[in-house]
Amino acid sequence: MKKTVKILAALAMTAGFAGAAQADKLDDIKAAGKLVVGIKQDYKPWGYLTVDGELAGLEIDLAKDVASRLGVEVELVPVVASNRMEFLQQGRIDLVIATMGDNPDRRKVVGMIEPNYYAGGTNVIAPKAVGLKSWEDLRGKDVCALQGSYYNRRVTQLYGPTLVAFAGIPEATSALTNGNCVAFLYDNTWIESQLATEAQWADFEMPLVTEDPQAWSIAVPLEELDAPYGKMMSEIVTDWHKTGFLIERNAENGIAASPFLQEQHDLLK
Amino acid sequence: MNPGRIKGHLPVLLPARKLMLSDIPLHDRLFNVWTAGALLIAFLVTAIGPSFAQAEAAPARSILTILFEWTPSIAKAFGFNVLISIMAMAIGTVLGVGLGVLQVSPRSMIRRLAWIVTQFFRNSPWLVLLFYCILLIPFKITLFGMSVPFPGWIKAVIGLSLPVMAYMSEYMRGAINSIPSGQWESAQSLGFTRFQTMRDIILPQTIKRVLPPWMNLYAVLTMATPLVSIVGVNEVMSLTRAALSAESRVDLLIPMYLYILCWFFLYCYPISTLTGRLERRYSVKL
Predict the structure, then answer these.
(1) Which chain A residues are Cβ-neighbours of B235 within 8 angstroms?
(2) Rounded to whole angstroms, how far apart are CA atoms B94 and A127?
(3) Model-level pTM?
(4) How far apart are the first and last CA of chain A?
(5) How many CA atoms lie within 13 A of A175 on its CB side?
(6) B146: closest chain A residue by CA
C-alpha cells in the first residue's frame, strides 16, 4: 500500500510537470469545449444554490458570460476560501470568480485580473439594541467572524475585540441572533444586501463606517496572467464595466447598487 | 425430563409457548425499531416543533416547508455519501482481506510488514488520511499519454478506504487465528497446499466471524462520510451548508442539521440492528 502511495506521488509530479509544459491555455479551453470556473455556493446573492440544486447568483452570471464569449460550455465547481487558489494552481479549475479579494500576498500565488470586477469593505452587523457607534466600541467584546477571513487579523490588531470564528455564515449568524456575540464582522456588501432584503434582520443595523476597501478580482493561474488567456480575461472585465453589464447583473440579482461599479463604469466608458 | 422432546413417543400437541417479556433479551427490548421510531419522532417534535409554531405566526415559509423543498437535493447528496461509503468499503475490504492474510503469513518479513501497515492506518485519524489523499493525489493522472481525471470524491474514497483496509485486516487476522488449528492440520493431511487451505477451507469459515464487525465498520464509515465535506467534496454536509446560506434563515440551522442526522440515523440504524442479529446467530455456542 505504501508503495502505491509512492507511485501515486511520483505520478503526481510527472502530471504536474506535464501540465506546466502545456501550450496556450486559451487554445486548451477551446479544444476541451468547456471552461471550468470555481464559484461560491454559500455566498448569497453572489453565488448560491437554488432549491432545484442549480447554482445562481451574480458570479454565476459572470462565469456563464465568460464561457459564452469564449464559445464554450461552462462547468461550475463550488470552492471555498481555503481551496480556491489550490484548485487553480493544480489546474482543477481554469478561472476563479469567488468573491476573492485582491491583495499583494495573493498576487504572488495566482494571477489577479485587472481591472477588478467588484469591491467590498469590512463592517459589522449588530443588533440595534447594542448601539455601537464606532469601531472602538468593539474593544474587549465578543465578535462573531468567519474562519480564514483576511480582515480578522487587522480588526483584532486595531480594535481588540475577542473574535469568535465560525466555519460558515449560517453558524455565525445563528450565534449572533442567540446573543453569543455583539456583532458579526463581515463584508459590507453582504450585510447591506441582507439588511435590505431579509425581514429577520429588522432589529439589526450596520452601524460602523465601512473600512479597508478591498477590490475583488477574478483570477487565472499565475503563469497565464500575461498570456493570451489572461489578456482575454482582462478585456472581458473591462467590457463588463464599459457596457454596464456588471451594474445590470448586480441589480438583477437584488444587490444594493455598488458605488465601485458606477465609478468604474464612468471611468471606462 | 420433558417427554415431548423424546423421540419415538406419540406426537402430542403441546400448548403454544407463550412469549414472555423476559424471554426477549434486554437489549432487544430497549433498542428495536419501535423505540427508534419513537425516539426519532420525539426528536423532531422537540426540535422542529417550536420553530414550526413560530413560523406559522410569521408570513415566511415554515421550516417544514423549507426542509421539504430541499429534500430532493438532500436525497441526491445523501446518495452521494452512500456511494462514497460503498466504494470505500469495497476497496477497503478487498485490500483488508489481502493484508489480513499477509498478517498470518509464515514468512516473518511479510508478517511484520503487513502488521506495520495495518497498525499505521488503523491508528491514524481518518481526517488526516483524507487530507493526505486529497493533497498527494493529483486531480488528473497522465498515463501513457492518456489523462485520467481524478475528481475529489474519488480521492476521498481512497482516503476513507485506507482505515477500512486496516480495520478489515485486523478482523481477518483475528478470524483466521480463531479457526481451530485442526482445520489446518486435517487440510495438510489431505494434501492441500497452504494457498488451497487458505482459499478453500479457512477463508470461507472466517466469513461468518467477520460479517458482524464488518457491518459495524460499514455503519461507522457511513457516519464518517461527512468528513469529506471538509476537503471540498460536495456531499450532504456541503449541500446543507449551501442550503442554509441560500435560505439565510437563522432559525433553520438546528432543524436542518437535525434533518440530516435523521437521514443518517434511518440509514445506519437498520444496519446496526441487523448486525446485532447476525452477531447473536453466529455467536460461538459452547
Answers:
(1) none
(2) 57
(3) 0.75
(4) 60
(5) 20
(6) A15
Tell me the three cell numbers of residue B244. Answer: 442554509
Tens of pLDDT, residues B206-217: 998 899 999 999
Residues 6+ apart with CB under 8 A from A233: A66, A95, A113, A218, A220
Q: Which of A249, A196, A216 lies closest to A150, judged by CA?
A: A216
Do residues A151 and A157 lie in contact, with contact meaning Cβ atoms separated by under 8 Å?
A: no
User: What local confidence, expressed as pLDDT, does residue A232 receive?
Assistant: 92
Amino acid at B176: I
Q: Which domains does chain B have, with CATH numbers?
A: 63-281 (1.10.3720.10)
Q: Say whether the peptide bond before residue A115 is cis (omega within 30 degrees of 0).
A: yes
Q: Which of A15, A16, A49 sits opposite B242 (nearest CB)?
A: A49
Residue B263 · residue B223 · CB < 8 Å: no
- Do residue A11 and residue B243 have CB atoms under 8 angstroms apart? no
The answer to whether residues B278 and B211 touch, using CB atoms and an 8 Å cutoff, is yes
Give the length of chain B: 286
Instruction: Identify each DSSP E strand in chain A by its residue range.
Output: 34-39, 42-43, 47-49, 55-56, 73-78, 95-96, 110-112, 118-127, 142-146, 162-166, 183-187, 204-205, 211-216, 219-221
Which domains does chain A carry?
2-117+217-268 (3.40.190.10), 121-214 (3.40.190.10)
